[in-house]
Request: fold
Amino acid sequence: MSHRTLAAEGVVAGYERGARVLDGASLTVPPGRRLALLGANGSGKTTLLRCLSGALPPTRGRITLDGAELHATRTGLRAHRQAVQLVLQDPDDQLFSASVAQDVSFGPVNLGLPEEEVRARVAEALELLAVAHLAGRPTHQLSYGERKRVAIAGAVAMRPCVLMLDEPTAGLDPTAVGEALAALARLQEADSTIVMSTHDVDLALRWADEVAVVVDGGVVQGPPDVVLGDDALLARARLDRPWALSVGARLQALGLLPDGALPRDADALLAALPDRPGVRT
Amino acid sequence: MSHRTLAAEGVVAGYERGARVLDGASLTVPPGRRLALLGANGSGKTTLLRCLSGALPPTRGRITLDGAELHATRTGLRAHRQAVQLVLQDPDDQLFSASVAQDVSFGPVNLGLPEEEVRARVAEALELLAVAHLAGRPTHQLSYGERKRVAIAGAVAMRPCVLMLDEPTAGLDPTAVGEALAALARLQEADSTIVMSTHDVDLALRWADEVAVVVDGGVVQGPPDVVLGDDALLARARLDRPWALSVGARLQALGLLPDGALPRDADALLAALPDRPGVRT
Amino acid sequence: MTGLAIDDAAWASAWRLRSPADKLLLSGGLVLAALVLPAWPGSVLVGLAAVVLALGPARVPARTFGRAVRVPLAFILIGALTAVVQVGDGGLGWAPDAATQAGGLVAHAVAGSAAVLLLATTTPMSDLLPALHRLRVPDAVVEVASVTYRMLFVLLTSLSTIREAQAARMGHAGIRNSYRSSGMLAAAVLTRSWDRARRLSDGLAGRGMETGLRVLPEVLPSSPRFVASTLAGLAALVTVSALA
Amino acid sequence: MHIAEGFLPPAHAIGWTIAAAPFVVHGARAVAKEVRENPESTLLLGAAGAFTFVLSAIKLPSITGSSSHPTGTGLGAVLFRPPVMALLGTVVLLFQALLLAHGGLTTLGANAFSMAVIGPWAGYAAYRLVRRSGGGLLPGVFAAMAVADLATYVTTALQLAWAHPDAASGFGGAAAKFLSVFAFTQVPLAIGEGLLGVLLFRVLVVNARPELERLGVLRRTPEPDQAPVPEATPGAER
Reply:
């Protein structure tokens, strides 16, 4: 699992209600880092992820991996899918087997790996997603959050260089979101590049190394605090400004927070604030 | 649509993996107000809503409307359903007719109302949810947010005294959440009592007049800032503390916010904070 | 909540990790014994064996087993009764040996049903389907059946949720409403099934599906002791029945 | 109405299995061929099987007070054609036997013959007949579902009569007995299922026209009423 650079260049794809969903979208996934892909419902986040994964060939533009263009041939797609995996939002769109372990084995078996290797990868993926205890349970008895993690394990077992997740935290409660993020952190330590789509700006600010906003058929990419502090862009994208940036900026102006980068979540903000009045000026 | 008091008393219901989901849950829905029902995934929020709506008869305990017990008979349920409506989380479970207007008319037609009355109710409900322009469209062509609002319109057309919504904002982007909340505000002005389940503590703090947390099979009910400031309770319930309460409390301690109730969201917090350093002490 | 009680029991059974072939041998043997041995004492012993094995070593909840055995009972009783009523010139009457005949029919059927249920409550469908492959059923058919098994739970959940939503809006108050709603319900579940299939095929393409749904087979080794006891037990059943 | 395990003598159980086998094998070959040419159809066929199973869980209120469940074999025959239904119906019967305790294993052949072979073929014949004689889609669907149900019930009754002939009047008397006993539930059910089919298709022709066209139930409309949507845009975001 070495780092590879996945990119979209001038991608045109998808039609909805007579308009192009993506119309010249370019994005470079920073290798070895965490990218949050933000956008309102219907903005084209999912379309872009599907293009990047090879599931949807763009009408125009190209998808590249380390600069080499992806061609929608059988061999081209096969090689691409070994490097890039997309986990869909609804786990039921990806889980077809009644047995958790068998479902996770599907990808590695398709790669034509020998049996022991498949077993090892299944065990590893279940471990990384903290779902090893579910291996013997039928898929249909799992909760939504458990199914989501098993679906991610199915992609992880492919050992992709780039793992993309469509709204992995949607429908999960705070604890489950925490667990999912922890699993993603373990994955990144295991040398993966991770892309997550979401419309939760607070989550993106907290989690991502870099963010990309899908807006008006294109993509605006940059550091989280810069992009998510751009009110004009956020308004166009129908997104809110993360509260931590708004509140942090004011507190900085009030001299309560040190200059420089703003805290990205409540814990960091509280840690950076003085405990008693009048300590800082 | 006069105000009526819906309540659960000592409700035992639901079994999952050998344990009771609700085990003695009591809740009183404050008439004419907004109640947020909070809880982690699997805590029993949906089970409680299904009991309150009459869909799931409790194993023990009772559901009352203005003190009168709901009996799971044909006539008992019929009367209850005219007063209490539940909108499910997934709009696709609620939309089964060909067109939007037809779907919204489903309930009123089943009530046996005369045609003009049905038409009037459909028009009113579509108006309240700001989806009148979609009336003639097939339901499967709508976006997710539109489908959610049409599903709510279908319940609103029954003119319930108490409208309950299971995770109405899940999966919606910030703008769509805003639209949904605006629609709920119009409904409440139209004299309804509204219950919304969610696991978004920030949203609950911002929106609700009162909150109820479903935890360990029971319910803890009270004012938002009190209940959502109870760290021990939140930990048991696997929920986070709303950032506005954490940050607000510290800023109050620092003398930057006036004593009394804390601001409930970023806008209120920014409005309450001084603009320049050293204005308040 | 839309779990099927028999399926839940199978996944939770103490025999879940026994070889499906072993369990198939046992239940199949009992089913055949129930069919071919005389009702007394053969069927009665088969029925007892199935119940004792299920509730004992396989630890199937008695409630689940009892309820499931009751399912075919209405058919069995009405069918047996109809079989032994005689249509003569003078109208209806009892057949000459009505009681024996009806008793035999009921015994065969109840014992056979219990023996099938022993398999059903200890062996998940997904363990049995690969066995079809060994019976030379084409892979494509086994895979279609596996998808059916996975998807029926998804659709059952949709079915009960949509029905509940309809009932909330009075969709099942009265026969007229109920028919109209049932038609919509069936249509909604059918379109849902197509949508699901399309999305699942997209999802699986991303995981490298090219020719089929091949997965790592689960290894559930056969137990020589279980097989030996099964054969001994069946032999004992036959012997006792032959001597009686 | 499924024949319970152990209700047929061994010779009958074997005989009906042999009788149903060619149809089921033919269906299996058709399915295998379809899947070989088109791997995704595994999922569509699996979905069709799951739908057929789930359809039988819909409770139909009947005028006689008792409620019964549709068999769905007529609907399946119209949508997926009788050869495929012979296989899917048999798979569903196996599932019903093992997941719901409806039917049995030694009686699987007999049940498959009546529900997965005779029912779909009779229903499909009725459907073609109505359509060819100028009847519309909805009358055709009604005929298919009602006839499939009736044909299944009559076949089952005859199978039972053959296995358990009347002590005095033989097969004829037994047939009369079984036909009349089960008529109480099965005749209203057949009518009810026909009605259900009509109601279902009324929604389907609006909501699922493309699928019906793909299955050949509806002829392709030359001028679609919406703007042409390219094939590759199912990426609706949710």
